[in-house]
Hints:
Elements: H1 2-11, E1 20-23, E2 26-29, E3 34-35, E4 46-50, E5 57-64, E6 67-78, E7 83-90, E8 95-97, E9 100-102, E10 107-115, E11 118-125, E12 137-145, H2 157-160, H3 165-168, H4 173-186, H5 195-202, H6 214-217, H7 220-235
Parallel strand pairs: 1-12
Antiparallel strand pairs: 1-2, 3-10, 4-5, 4-12, 5-6, 6-7, 8-9, 9-10, 10-11, 11-12
Amino acid sequence: xxxxxxxxxxxxxxxxxxxxxxxxxxxxxxxxxxxxxxxxxxxxxxxxxxxxxxxxxxxxxxxxxxxxxxxxxxxxxxxxxxxxxxxxxxxxxxxxxxxxxxxxxxxxxxxxxxxxxxxxxxxxxxxxxxxxxxxxxxxxxxxxxxxxxxxxxxxxxxxxxxxxxxxxxxxxxxxxxxxxxxxxxxxxxxxxxxxxxxxxxxxxxxxxxxxxxxxxxxxxxxxxxxxxxxxxxxxxxxxx
Length: 240
């Protein structure tokens, strides 16, 4: 029995077994981190910044109404015209147990550490998506902002809050349509077949047309809200 037990213990190693963690361009030892323990997963919600320069990415973690979603926003230089082009990736089977983050694509733990002498909060992951970390290295993303400030637009809550039909009864049919399409606009949908929406979003300073597949970038909360908004829109009265 000793050999199977030994194999089992080796399989269930933790991030503490990683000798180094990459933070930006620096390497930090495992001893630099302390477990970040909270009373509720909601406390971990926020935006975590990983990497530097061309390896930069933002990790948006949302915890709302029993749902946990995680989205990675990164980018790169595009030509014709030359500009910074955003790209998105949705993590699947996301959950938080204790101070541990799980998904099909990666897993990690929420930690505290010192950044320039001040206590900071972060997420340390095993499998880095940026390419900054090498084998047997973890990567650290520091929480730098609230999720409420991450999404742009007039109705940012459609991306981080599960909407309830009773909350939408106050809006007109036109407002609900705008609310629903604003979710698409945040990801750069072009609205090539709707001149009114195209002109409206073109005036918004945060709006930038991107080449993205909406099926692949919308989070589970956003997809759920799309259904709720469509039902509310169908039931709403047109403005007089």
